[in-house]
Amino acid sequence: MSFQLPPLPYAKNALAxxxxxxxxxxxxxxxxxxxxxxxxxxxxGKPLAKATxxxxxxxxxSSGKPSPVFNNAAQVWNHTFYWHSMKPKxxxxxxxxxxxxxxxxxxxxxxxxxxxxxxxxxxxxxGWAWLVLDKGQLKVTQTxxxxxxxxxxxxxxxxxxxxxxxxxxxxxxxRPDYVGRFLDHLLNWDFANEVLQKA
Length: 199
Description:
Blueprint (H helix, E strand, L loop, with lengths): L20 H23 L9 H9 L6 H17 L12 H10 L2 H14 L4 E8 L2 E8 L10 E7 L6 H4 L3 H12 L2 H10 L1
Antiparallel strand pairs: 1-2, 1-3
Helix pairs in contact: 1-3, 2-3, 5-7
């Protein structure tokens, strides 16, 4: 069994003008695919080649030191999750069950957005900002490089990729502009509610 590059859950031009078709072509078809291909090469002929992506991540994270297997498996998972964290005509205040938790935890959507924006904008170098469920409590977190909530016993609900390849073609080095577009126009609360329901 080998891991496959999952298709995007929408057309490559569906997030425009907030994220361009050119960015999705480079980000999904090249970066994400490279992680998938490299992971398959690393696991060829090994027992973990028959495991789920989550099992590969947990097993490779158990050493406590990032390895090539962990980095590539985590990036395959992170990117797949990121694509679903966005949708055309998304963004804005939370809807559904998660909106109640956001109000309870942060006080308001505006307070959540401020915390999430800060996490995304201040993550030094490459990484991710997340909305997670940690022991039943909502939290905004950030991780470096390929690290992810799954490796820390948390359940990811939403994420934004703040590696430069996620936004450089569209806004160059203006990460805050990209984060604003994500929060205001792309964030997929339907997906977050689906994950929350299964947690």
